[in-house]
Amino acid sequence: MKATAVSTRKMKTMSAGELEAIEQEALRDYEEIKSRGMSLNMSRGIPCVEQLDLALGVLEALHARSEFANSNGDDCRNYGVWNGLLEMREIFSELLGVPADQIILGNNSSLQMMFDTISQGFTHGCGGHTPWCRQGEVKFLCPSPGYDRHFAVTEYFGIKMLPVPMLPTGPDMDMIEELCKDPSVKGCWCVPKYSNPTGVTYSDETVRRFARLHPAAPDFRIMWDNAYCVHDLTDEPAELLNIYDECVKEGTEDQVIIFASTSKISFPGAGVAALASSAKTIASLKGRTTVQTIGSDKLNQLRHVLFLHDADGVKSLMKGHRQILAPKFRIVLDALERELGGLGIARWSNPKGGYFVCLDVLEGCAKRVVGLCREAGVTLTDAGATYPYGNDPHDSNIRIAPSFPPQEELRDAMELLCVAIKLAAAEKLLAGRG
Amino acid sequence: MKATAVSTRKMKTMSAGELEAIEQEALRDYEEIKSRGMSLNMSRGIPCVEQLDLALGVLEALHARSEFANSNGDDCRNYGVWNGLLEMREIFSELLGVPADQIILGNNSSLQMMFDTISQGFTHGCGGHTPWCRQGEVKFLCPSPGYDRHFAVTEYFGIKMLPVPMLPTGPDMDMIEELCKDPSVKGCWCVPKYSNPTGVTYSDETVRRFARLHPAAPDFRIMWDNAYCVHDLTDEPAELLNIYDECVKEGTEDQVIIFASTSKISFPGAGVAALASSAKTIASLKGRTTVQTIGSDKLNQLRHVLFLHDADGVKSLMKGHRQILAPKFRIVLDALERELGGLGIARWSNPKGGYFVCLDVLEGCAKRVVGLCREAGVTLTDAGATYPYGNDPHDSNIRIAPSFPPQEELRDAMELLCVAIKLAAAEKLLAGRG
């Protein structure tokens, strides 16, 4: 495929003839790429094989008999220890800045712990208040674009989702404070660091405003999904203020529930998930957790403790992830800049961490772009998926997940994506001239 | 302590003087045992260290890189495969007699899968019917004595529990068929093989009557907890009819949900749990499960596949468990026979498998016996725990869990238990003479 010949003038300012020339060229390029018969799924933020290999030591960690007893003398193979191994809770304690005895370990999925938290609110209520299922319509705030699986959980329980725009500082806190005056608003989803998909890390002021939030609903909960707490990609990692400390200052610590996992530290399918909150919230969760299970998988926790040792061990491991991921993000950003820079048909994030590049194409073009890519063999996250009910009001947001494909395939995929964006933009602008 | 001097005459036929002599002797023996300062928790059916060691191979199974890919080519370390590894589902398929594609693997806890099933009925309903939480009072049938954790789950959701007597053939099916005419009765707990705690295996006729059940409630579910499906203790293992096959014959297969796990095959804290049901029920569960998690721990499933190989591997492993457990059951049964045989103050089961000996002492004596043992350092399952709401109407049932203590400690504990039973019986009978 020859180098693209378009100028860097904004496409909106071009004549119909110029746009048609771009459309024709993009169409030719698209057909050429399509003929390569690519087959690549980039729909999710999935670590690649090289990343998984970084944590092979987890599997080698458990051998000697003496290692089955943890510091309390419990045999990690047996039943018991409802909140999980202390040693693993201590690692999360360091990472999240919450005391280890206010942490509950789950199995391999923090999503499952979030689902369960929402389920508890629905059937049993939060903080001793009426269960949400007995309160008529209840609502949740959904900073958008956001994480589709959060939205899927809320939708599953029939909770009405209210989108809140994401700003460079985090969710629009003016709007959140306003919406919280409605007592039927029961919570807010947050990915506070390297947010999925925008890459935004909440500013100190945003975190403080969450801590100072006094919603009309006494059973309001901030679902603080700190999924990317140690997932830096640059030498200038974002610093996230500790929401728990801020909440303690404000006396609102029962209101926040923090989630994290080692899914993107060790293994996505076999990591350790954690939930952290106030002592009061943990005490109330104990009543539920001990009915639900006789304990999470302590052997897997022990494996992780033996391999990671402590928060420093985690951070050192994350440097390996960065070495693998940063070049892939570079490929994505370079392609976007090279192919689309100056055309005025796309904007994108330059994240300092996390798993995504957030792309906004011309209004009304995202579905078309994702469709064109799919037709040519590259599956992106569905257009709209980053909004509640899959409804992107501008049909412009596309989530790019660079982690999984090998670099060569990623380059090809980006070539395809950029051509698709140009094609869709030309079509759109020409139709507008119609 | 000298050998007991009581005759084997039924204590109820004894004179007050004779009873007083027994009471005095039992009291002396009790004080002597108490002075030993025992400390033993026998409250739960927990495998002992020697049993856990049988499955050490699970931990050694995973090394070579090539083993991370399962037969579908998925990397077991990564996200995905919502229903779990096919190879592990095939092992459960052999054990449970349900097709592998109608099995969903969970993490380490079948209890958690049961909790989740009840939770689903409560919030979303079963088979497309109105959620239980919108139906007013709903009820569950609880064959009793039964498993306290089942009852705790039902109680947690505010579901009214109706006890149903256990007969030697399983639950009283006449009563179950009658109670099922009430459309607010939504399900029944079952431990069909080596039932907890009675040791009863449901007769073929009982299984068939469950399969033929046509409850008034269309959203009725049989919670078939086959926890002890391969847990034989003798050369004459009980044979349980395959409920799934029977339900298919009757067209009622959507009505039964089968649970099992390797908790008492490999590791209680790090085994693999499974749920099996009809294709229709599994399809409806897929919608829930894929919102809840991106998949269970496939590495742990792979470990189990590599160690167990197949159902024959499981059965061969279970022979090792039997070798360790059978002598402990012998100790319990011998002590009961030797110390209490013929006195008419206790009856007990002689189970062919499972984890418990089921003991019935004189009416009104179970709490006293358990209290006496606790005071002397041996914690038994709480009296009443085997009944809904912890309420044993006769205060007579005690669950003995012989698996965990070393043989010597078990002998001492049984000595204590028998003395406590005699003491409580003498007290009771003397009070009756009052």
TrEMBL record, chains A, B:
InterPro entries listed in its UniProt record: AspAT_Ic, PyrdxlP-dep_Trfase, PyrdxlP-dep_Trfase_major, PyrdxlP-dep_Trfase_small
Aminoacyl-tRNA synthetase as UniProt keyword: no
MF GO annotations: transaminase activity
Gene3D superfamilies: Aspartate Aminotransferase, domain 1, Type I PLP-dependent aspartate aminotransferase-like (Major domain)
UniProt entry keywords in alphabetical sequence: Aminotransferase, Transferase
The name this protein goes by in its record: Aminotransferase
Native source organism of the sequence: Acutalibacter muris
Lineage of source species: Bacteria, Bacillati, Bacillota, Clostridia, Eubacteriales
